[in-house]
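Subject: complex prediction, re-run

Hi both,

The earlier run crashed halfway through, so I resubmitted it with identical inputs.
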Amino acid sequence: MTRIWLLLTGVLAIIIFATSLLVVIPNTMIGQVKIPSQLSDYTALQARGREVYVSEGCVYCHSQQVRDPVYTSDKERGWGPRATVPSDYVYDKPHQLGTMRTGPDLINIGVRQPSDQWHHVHLFNPRSLMAWSIMPAFPYLYTVRDSASIKPGEVFYSVPGGKLPAGKVIVPTADGDALVAYLKSLRRTYPVPTGDEPAARSIGGRSEHTMP
Amino acid sequence: MSATLPARVIALASPITDMENLDIRLRADASSRQVALRAIAFSVVWLLVGSAFGLIASFKLHMPDWLVSNPMLTFGRIRSAHLNAMAYGWASSAMLGVSVWIIPRLVHTELRVPKAAEAGLYFWNIGMVLGIVGILAGYSDGLEWLEMPRYWADPFFVIGGGLVGLSLLSTIAVREVEHLYVSVWYIMAAFIWFPIIFVVGNWPTYSGVESAAVNWFYAHNALGLWLTPVCLAAAYYFIPKILGRPIYSYQLSLLGFWTLGFFYSLNGMHHLIGGPLPTWMITTSVVASGLMIIPVMAVGVNQHMTLNKRFGALRYSPTLRFIVFGSVAYTLVSLQGVFMAFREVNRLTHFTHVTVAHAHVGLYSFVTMIMFGSIYYILPRLLGREWVSEKLISWHFWAVGIGQTVYLVPLTVAGMFQGVAMADPTSTWETVVRAMLPGLIGRSIGGTLLTIGHCVFAWHVFLMFRGGKQKQGLPPFHEVAPIVTKRDKASFVAGGVK
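This time it finished cleanly. Structure:
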C-alpha cells in the first residue's frame, strides 16, 4: 500500500460504520423503551447503595440478568420468573449486567432474600451462613459493638457461626444500610411490559429463542 | 540525552542480512531513543504493579477472609486495578514505546515532533496513576475496561494517545519510502481507532442496556482495535527482520488487515449473548466473531509461512522465541474466541472462568509475550549494550511459559465444570463453587510463577538501564546462531561467514 489517504479513509470508514451500527442506531431504538409502570426509580438510599455496589466491584462476580428459559437454566435456578428485558434497566446507570457468575445472579435478589438480617450478616461475613462461600467479607461496612452498648431503637445484628466473640454485635454503617436497601430493591418479577417482549424486539417479529 | 547512538550498536546487527540501510536505522533509532526508553521503563513498572494486584486478587478468590478490613483491598477494586494496570499501564505503555521505535525505522526517517510523543507518554502515565488511585479509592465508573474515573483520569489517555499518534502520523507523512509496510498500517490504524473508541466508550449519557452495549463495544475494541493491531505490527516487523527473509504474502497481509478492522469492530455484543439486548445486535456480533476466522487465518498462515523451515532460529533469538509464542497464541485464542461466540458453546462458557482464562490467553500469551519479545530486541539497540545474562532470559521465558500453562489449563477446565454445573438447575450453588475452586487455586500458583518471571525480567531490564560493567563479546545465545537449518549451515561455511 502506498497511499496514506486511502489507508486513513478506510480506517475511519470502519470505525464510523461499527459505531453507527452498534452505538448510534441502537441508541435511537432502545432510547424509545417505555418505563414499566411497576418499576420505580431508586430512592436516595437505594441509589447510594448502588454506588457502593459499583465501587466495591460486585459486578465482577454477580450478574444482573435472567437469560431466556428455553436457552438457559437461569429461570429454573430460581433467578427470576422470566428473561429480563431492556425496560427492566431504564434506571440503571452505569449498567451492572455483568459477565461473570462466581456468585449467583442478583437481578431478583430482593425477592429471594427480603430479610435485612440475612443480607447484613451475609455481607459482614458470608461464611457465617455458608461455610463453603468464597465471597469476600465486608467488615468495613459494619461497626462491631458490645451488645451492652446498644441503645434502645438502634438496629443491630448478632452474627452466627462463631464469626464474632460472645457479647459482640454488628451495627451497619450508612454504606452498609444503603447497600442492603439497594439489594432488596432488585426485583424484576412483574410481567414483561407491552412492546418489550423478546419477540417484538427481533427482526421480523421472530424470536431467536427457538433453540431446542 | 544524546541524539547519537554508541558505535557499539553496529556490532549488534545480524551479520548476514542487516548491513543494508544501517545508517537509516541508526538515525531512526536515535530519534526515537528517549521516548522509547522511557516508555519501556514505565511499562515495566506497571508490569510489576499489575502483577501484585493480580496476585492479590487471585489469592482472595480462594482465601476470602484475607485482607478484608481495608476497602482499598477488596476483591472488586483490586481486580479492576489489575486489569487497568496491565492493559493500559504495562501493555499500552510498552506499545507506545514499540510504535515510536518501529515507525521511523519503517518509513526511513527520524521521528517527527518527538516532544509531542514524549508529552503524550507522560500524559498517559499520569492518567494511569490517577486512574488506579481512583479505582482503589472507590471511584470506579463501574464499566468493565472503563473503570478509571471518566473525568479526572480518562482525558489524559485521549490527549496522551492523541499526542503520540500525532507524532507517528507526522513521521509517516514525511516518509522517505514509497511503500508502507503492513506494520505501518496496523500502528497507524490503532492510533486513530483508540481515541475514538475511548471517547465513545466513556460517553456519559448512556444508561441501562445502551450502557451495556456501549461498554462491550468499547471493551472488545480495546482488544481488537488497539492492543491487537500494535502487537500484530510488532510480530510482522520482527519475524521477517530476525529471519532476514521477506513476509510470505503481501496479499494475505492486506486481507488480514482490512478484515480485522471490519469484523473485529463488530464483535463486542458477543459478551452479552442471551442478555436483554435487541437480538439483531447480538447476532451481528456472533456473525462478525465467526468471520474473524478470515483475518486470523490470513495472519496466522502469513506468519507461519514466513517462519517455515526456519524454526531453528527460535533457539538463538530470544525475541523470536517470545514473538512466535505470541503469534501462535494469537491464532489459538482467536479461534477459541470464534467458538466461544457460538450460542451453543456460549450458553455453557458465558459467566464462567473459561472467559477469564480466554482473556488471559489474549492479553498474556499473545499481547504480553509479543511485548516481551519486542523489548528484548529494542533495548540493546537503544542502550548500545547487550543483555547481561542468558540465564535471566531463559528463566524469564520458562517461568512465564510454565506459569501460563499452570494458570490457564486448570482455570479453563474448572470453568467448564462451573458452566456444566450452572446449566444443571438441580446442582446447588455450593456444587458450582466447588467445581471452580481447583481452577482458582491453580491460577494462584500459575500467577505466582508469572510474577517470578516478571521480577526476573524487570531485574534484567534494570541491569540494562543501570549499565556499568559490560559483558564483552557476542550477544546471548550467539553460539547457536545464526545457523538455523542444515542448508544454512552449509552455505555459511561455504560463504565463509563465521
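The CA atoms of residues 338 and 415 of chain B lie 18 Å apart.

- K.
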